[in-house]
Specification:
33% helix, two-stranded antiparallel sheet, 7 strands, 208 residues, 3-stranded parallel β-sheet
């Protein structure tokens, strides 16, 4: 989340290039719900229809990136359709194991941008983004702005993440039970980060 022109989109696409993976860009302002849920197609018998996802979804690998650009500029229907994709990687009837990254301008800086609905906001990790002089210099010197040697490679099993959750996350939640569900009391804050049981479940590695 950052003001326009501070290289959010360019950085994600450059990262994919450096990693040597595909980056599928989905611009929210140009999407319809069918682009995410699939198109209804009649069966051969013509007695029922089924949702057929777009072919690109089946080509995405586990290390590829699905990039949801202009995230808060889509219609409310598109924002609702994005909920399953952002959390579980489900694109209509298929599940994609690729990384999901979203970028957006703050609503006051966006063209036709709106605050995120609380259910959508709760599905995301929110990262403030600012322009960085060192990255810009690296871009001028190398053409991509990323030093591969500084990108951490994390290899942890789901069981190891659950064990870590038992030792660190669970005691933290038990220390103050209100942490388990902590929706902001001020409606204006509900489009930002807030914790629910889903937050701790994802953090504990149950959903990756």
């Amino acid at each position: 989340i950052g003001i326009p022109g501070n290289a959010k989109s360019a950085s994600i696409e450059a990262l994919a290039t450096v990693m040597g993976v595909k980056c599928k860009v989905l611009a929210s302002s140009q999407l319809a719900p069918e682009d995410l849920n699939g198109m209804p197609v009649l069966t051969v018998s013509r007695t029922e229809s089924k949702m057929v996802p777009f072919a690109w979804g089946k080509t995405m690998g586990a290390d590829d990136i699905i990039f949801l650009d202009e995230f808060n500029q889509g219609s409310l229907q598109v924002q609702a359709a994005m909920m399953r994709l952002t959390l579980t990687g489900c694109l209509g009837p298929i599940k994609i194991g690729s990384y999901r990254v979203a970028c957006m301008n703050p609503p006051e800086w966006g063209t036709a941008a709106r605050p995120l609905g609380p259910p959508t906001a709760n599905r995301l990790m929110h990262v403030p983004w600012q322009a960085d002089v060192a990255s810009y210099e690296l871009y001028l010197r190398t053409g991509n702005g990323f030093d591969w040697s500084t990108i951490p490679i994390v290899s942890v099993s789901e069981q190891e993440m659950r064990d870590e959750g038992l030792h660190s996350i669970l005691p933290f939640i038990k220390s103050e039970t209100s942490w388990l569900e902590s929706p902001p009391p001020n409606p204006e804050d509900r489009s930002g980060p807030w914790a629910s049981q889903r937050t701790w479940t994802v953090l504990g590695g149950v959903v990756c």
